[in-house]
Design a protein that fits this description.
Layout (H helix, E strand, L loop, with lengths): L2 E7 L5 H12 L5 E5 L6 H5 L8 E4 L2 E5 L2 H8 L1 H13 L4 H7 L5 H15 L5 E5 L3 H20 L1 H18 L7 H21 L5 E8 L2 H16 L4 E9 L9 H17 L4 E6 L8 H12 L14 E6 L2 E7 L8 E6 L2 E6 L2 E6 L9 E7 L2 E6 L1
Parallel strand pairs: 1-5, 1-6, 2-4, 2-5, 6-7, 7-8
Antiparallel strand pairs: 3-4, 9-10, 10-15, 11-12, 12-13, 14-15
Length: 385
C-alpha cells in the first residue's frame, strides 16, 4: 500500500519547499506524487513547471497536482451539487451565484481527502506527499471526516426519512426541490469514502504527519499547538523539521537571531524526545527547480530515507482498574485550565481551547461520566465512572 507523508506548519515556514524537495528525492526510488491542499498553490513555482488540477508528470517517477475544487466536486459528488444549486435557485439566486454557493463548507477539505483515497485505492503511487495548507486549515482538513461522521450518524437518517415522507406532499403544494435517493446516495458514498481515508490517515503504518517550523517563538508555539491538536485527533506524527536555521557564517548582524535559535533548538530537542528532529539551515540559493530541491532534500535528511517511519506510538489508550476506566491521551502542550470534558450519549467530548475531539466510547463505557482529569508527563488521564 502507498505511504502518505503530510507536511504542515505555519504559513511561511517553507513547508512547500520541504514537501516538494522530499517528493523529488523519493522519486529517485519510488513512484511519487506531490499534491497541494493549500488554496494558494505554489507547487508550480517550486518545481518550475505548469501543474494542472489532475496529476501532471514532472519526470519519470514524479507527478504533481494542484487540486481544483470545482473539478473535484464534478467528479465525486455532482448529484449533491446539482440539488443544492437547484435549491438556492429556488430561493431566488441567479444560476451562477447558486452554483458558486453550492460549494458548502467542508466540500474543499473532502475533495482533497477523496483524491488521496482514490490514489491509495487504485494503488497508483508508492508515495503520496501532501503539501498541506497552513496549520489551521490543515486541522480543519484532518478533522472533517470526524465531523462528517457525527452528521451521518446523528442527523442523516432523520433527514432521509423526513425527505422520503415529505416528498409526495411537497410535490402537490410546493415547487421547492426535494432531495431524491441519488442525492442521499451521493452523501452516503462521500461518508463511506471519508471514513476509509480517515482510517488510512490515522494508521501509523501508512501515514506520517510532519510538522515544519521556523526557529522563532511564534512558529515554534504554533507547532506545539498543532502537535497537541493532531494528537487529540489521533493522527500519527513522526517528525518535526526545524527550517531556516541561520548558519554561523551569517555574520555579526544575525548574532542575536542565532543566539535565540540555539535556545529554541535546545527546547525543541527536549520537547519532542520521541519524535525525529530534522534541522535545515538557510540556503544561499532559492529552492526552485528539481535539481536544487534534490540538493536541499539530501542535506535535510542526511542519509535518512524520508519514506521511513521515524516514530510510532499510541496517543489514546484505555485501561480498567477497581471498577473505573481510565482514558490516557497524549497531549503534551495542553493546559488544564483550557480543558473541558463531558459525556454526551456515549461520546466523550474533549475540548482544548478552540478544538474539540469526539471520542466514541465502546458500548460498555457509553454511560460512564468523567470523574477526574489530570496531566502527567505529557499525558491527560481521564477517569470515567
Amino acid at each position: 500500500m502507498s505511504r502518505v507523508l503530510l507536511y504542515t506548519g505555519k504559513g511561511g515556514v517553507g513547508k512547500t519547499s520541504v514537501a516538494t524537495s522530499t517528493a523529488v528525492m523519493l522519486s529517485k526510488k519510488y513512484k511519487t506524487i506531490v499534491m497541494s491542499t493549500d488554496p494558494a498553490h505554489s507547487l508550480s513555482d517550486s518545481l518550475g513547471v505548469n501543474i494542472g488540477s489532475e496529476a501532471t508528470k514532472i519526470s519519470d517517477n514524479l507527478y504533481a497536482q494542484e487540486i481544483n475544487i470545482n473539478d473535484a466536486i464534478q467528479s465525486h459528488w455532482n448529484d449533491l451539487r446539482e440539488y443544492l444549486t437547484a435549491l438556492f435557485q429556488y430561493q431566488g439566486l441567479d444560476p451562477i451565484s447558486a452554483d458558486e454557493i453550492a460549494i458548502l463548507p467542508g466540500f474543499e477539505e473532502a475533495a482533497y481527502l477523496l483524491y488521496i483515497n482514490d490514489y491509495i485505492k487504485n494503488n497508483e503511487y508508492d508515495v503520496i506527499v501532501v503539501d498541506s495548507a497552513p496549520t489551521g486549515e490543515a486541522l480543519r482538513l484532518l478533522s472533517f471526516p470526524e465531523v462528517m461522521r457525527w452528521y451521518m450518524v446523528k442527523i442523516f437518517p432523520i433527514s432521509r426519512t423526513a425527505a422520503k415522507m415529505a416528498r409526495p406532499f411537497m410535490k402537490t403544494f410546493s415547487s421547492i426541490p426535494m432531495p431524491n435517493d441519488k442525492v442521499f446516495k451521493s452523501a452516503e458514498t462521500l461518508y463511506d469514502e471519508l471514513g476509509n481515508i480517515h482510517e488510512i490517515l490515522q494508521n501509523p503504518d501508512i501515514t506520517s504527519i510532519r510538522l515544519v517550523t521556523n526557529v522563532d517563538n511564534m512558529s515554534y508555539n504554533e507547532t506545539k499547538r498543532a502537535f497537541t491538536y493532531l494528537l487529540l485527533y489521533n493522527y500519527p506524527i513522526d517528525a518535526v523539521i526545524a527550517n531556516k536555521i541561520y548558519p554561523d557564517n551569517t555574520g555579526d548582524f544575525f548574532i542575536g537571531w542565532r543566539d535565540s535559535q540555539v535556545k529554541i533548538l535546545n527546547e525543541i530537542d527536549s520537547a519532542f524526545p520521541e519524535i525525529k528532529i530534522f534541522k535545515s539551515y538557510l540556503q544561499d540559493y532559492e529552492l526552485l527547480g528539481s535539481e536544487k530541491l534534490l540538493k536541499f532534500a539530501e542535506t535535510l535528511y542526511n542519509n535518512n530515507d524520508p519514506y521511513s517511519i521515524f516514530y510510532k506510538g499510541k496517543p489514546v489508550e484505555f485501561s480498567r482498574e477497581n471498577n473505573k476506566t481510565t482514558v490516557k491521551l497524549k497531549l503534551p502542550f495542553a493546559d488544564k485550565k483550557n480543558l473541558n470534558l463531558y459525556n454526551r450519549a456515549g461520546e466523550l467530548i474533549i475540548e482544548v481551547n478552540n478544538w474539540k475531539r469526539i471520542l466514541y466510547l465502546p458500548e460498555t463505557m457509553a454511560n460512564l461520566q468523567p470523574e477526574n482529569a489530570e496531566f502527567k508527563n505529557g499525558y491527560l488521564y481521564i477517569t470515567l465512572s
